[in-house]
Write a structure and sequence with these properties.
Length: 387
């Protein structure tokens, strides 16, 4: 989980980006509430998808606004200085609109935000909440180095690029769980097994390693000469000799996710399939060798695509990789026209793929942390058509 130290560091970075006249901010995106406080409503709970608010003040106060059922569904510990928890369901009275509870919580701390200049996260708060603080808060502002106004949500998303130590540690936990699922896949993939059965085995192995209920989602699909590209959730289709099984999934733990891929041959692969695999493998290794702060993401894409083209398989049909964290995908994006540049603290994937009609499709993926020396490979699963 995120740490109190990490949450405080992220708050300090936010205040460094905001104009001096802003004395408070109101955050409503559930990912950003967690980012600054570690308060997160468990998505596997009765209160999944419900809202909370976080009021941050320039003098360092962190105030959580939520209803009582949201609080009971939250992962602990979380790190706030004050809680305004509104009784929403008491087992005695009928329930009301849950957004009304957040508005009521705001009125209880009106002495903190009223009459002071604030900033709201327009992407994360409801119109009801925004209207309550409209006289005191702006929804966009001008940064010193930007001509166009920006929003609080945009600033927070840019801060999320450079991961703190607690975020990286949480991502490592996700990756260990993902590796367990990939290992299990090699043990169960064979002719006659359905895509869904593979998914169940992978999910069980990942969750057992994680040690907590978590979300496992992604691509669990077979490709072959008749279907050279497929993705999405598993189907009842039963694997046949000659298929390729693309296993590309994330393990989401406390809002953060891993994401890496392998393609497993069902039966002995043909020479053509082996050549296709070797091209993808070498593409991955070539791109990994040039990862470092300051390199343009489009240059990484072109380097990856060049390897595939030199083997007669290119150009690369999709992105060469993307950022990891609280969304999927998030910056940086490695595509041919990307304007992104790698920065220290990025956690990202490399994900070359190759899809050939009347033969089959495959892709392979590792995760990396960009550091001052270049990069560190975070995922350690086996890349290969077979064990």
């Amino acid at each position: 989980m995120l740490t109190q130290e990490g949450c405080r560091e992220r708050q300090a970075r936010l205040w460094q980006r905001l104009p001096d006249e802003i004395s408070w901010v109101l955050v409503g995106d559930c990912r950003h509430v967690q980012y600054f406080s570690n308060f997160r409503i468990n998505p596997i709970s009765f209160s999944a998808d419900q809202k909370s608010l976080l009021l941050l003040t320039r003098d360092g106060k962190t105030i959580l606004l939520a209803d009582n059922f949201a609080k009971r569904s939250a992962t602990v510990p979380y790190f706030v200085d004050q809680e305004i928890i509104i009784p929403w369901y008491t087992h005695k009275k009928s329930v009301t609109n849950r957004d009304d509870a957040l508005c009521l919580a705001l009125t209880e701390i009106e002495n903190i935000w009223s009459g002071e200049t604030g900033l709201i996260e327009p992407e994360g708060v409801s119109e009801m909440v925004a209207a309550m603080v409209a006289e005191d808060a702006a929804w966009q502002f001008a940064e010193d180095d930007e001509e166009q106004p920006t929003t609080l949500g945009t600033v927070i998303r840019s801060l999320r690029r450079a991961k703190h130590a607690d975020e990286v540690e949480l991502l490592r936990t996700c990756m260990r769980a993902g590796e367990a699922g990939h290992k299990r896949a090699f043990e169960v993939i064979r002719p006659g097994v359905s895509e869904f059965e593979v998914y169940l085995e992978v999910q069980r192995a990942a969750q057992e390693t994680a040690g907590v209920p978590c979300i496992v989602y992604g691509d669990f699909r077979a490709t072959n000469a008749g279907l050279h590209k497929a993705g999405g959730l598993p189907t009842p289709y039963r694997l046949q000799d000659g298929d390729l099984f693309i296993l590309d999934y994330s393990v989401v733990i406390h809002g953060y996710r891993s994401d890496f891929t392998n393609t497993i041959s069902v039966g002995t692969p043909s020479d053509k399939i082996v050549a296709q695999f070797e091209a993808c493998r070498d593409t991955l290794h070539t791109a990994a060798e040039i990862l470092k702060p300051g390199i343009a993401c489009r240059d990484i894409w072109h380097a990856a695509s060049k390897v595939l083209e030199s083997r007669g398989f290119g150009p690369l049909a999709h992105h060469a990789g993307h950022g990891l964290g609280m969304e999927h995908p998030e910056p940086p994006i490695l595509v041919s026209e990307s304007i992104d540049t790698l920065i220290e603290g990025d956690v990202m994937t490399l994900e070359p793929g190759c899809y050939i009609e009347r033969q089959g499709g495959m892709r392979f993926e590792h995760n990396y942390l960009i550091n001052e020396h270049g990069s560190e490979q975070l995922s350690q699963h086996h890349i290969g058509l077979s064990r």
